[in-house]
């Protein structure tokens, strides 16, 4: 037997056994939420087999079929309904593309290639892949949840949403001119029941009397498994300029109403009798003036009385007007 052929046969058998071993390390694949994942099947087809001779399919760790190509034609009969319409096969690269990736899609996948012969199908290739799904968290955002309080504190919260997997850590960095302090608070988290994405937040209360210089606050989110850090926009605190606090008109109104009633009612009660007296006084004055006028007119009337003395029965009356308007030097009577 030719030793060269023996050596070549040994190499072929080694390659076949390597790919068929169940303990072979799976290929690590990462895909983003709502994106597309490529599930490769690194088959070289060294024998130049026709697609009409092969049966190719992919399945997940639960043995649910994602896609099947039976003798060169797609066969949807065995495909699980949750993968229907979500896959496409790249013939040139022997890669199955899984579209609209969800968190539930992460896990193990296997591709199988069988050679259909007259006596039956023979498995000629198998490959395992592990799919991890990622979702980028939004940029952390610092929000002031209340204005300055009675204790002169600034209450802040930092949040980041729609990410996966669960982040490792979330913290505040408090920077002043002389130092930087890291505050590791308790990270609050919640997970959506449908998408399985995480929302996280952390809270901080800053005492303004303790702030003696300008302070810059930054929120930092450490994600997994990429081990990256996401930074928020800086939030500034200036101790010289306290934050504006709108006046509480409710307190003012509640204080002003009783005070107005307490002062206003006595003043009103004192004002009413005064008004009554003022109304009576003009009446008395008018009566006095009327009496004076009547007396004056009476005296003038007396001075203006005509005294008529007849000289004889046949003659006209001779009238003398006794009036204060006639000059005293002219004592002659006026004759009509």
From TrEMBL:
Residue spans crossing the bilayer: 249-272
Location (main, coarse): membrane
Compositionally biased tracts (Basic and acidic residues): 286-302
Segments for region (Disordered): 282-305
Localisation per UniProt entry: Cell membrane
GO molecular function: receptor ligand activity
Subunit structure: Homodimer. Interacts with MARCH8. Interacts (via cytoplasmic domain) with PHB1 and PHB2; the interactions increases after priming with CD40. Interacts with CD28.
Name of protein: T-lymphocyte activation antigen CD86
Native source species: Prolemur simus (Greater bamboo lemur)
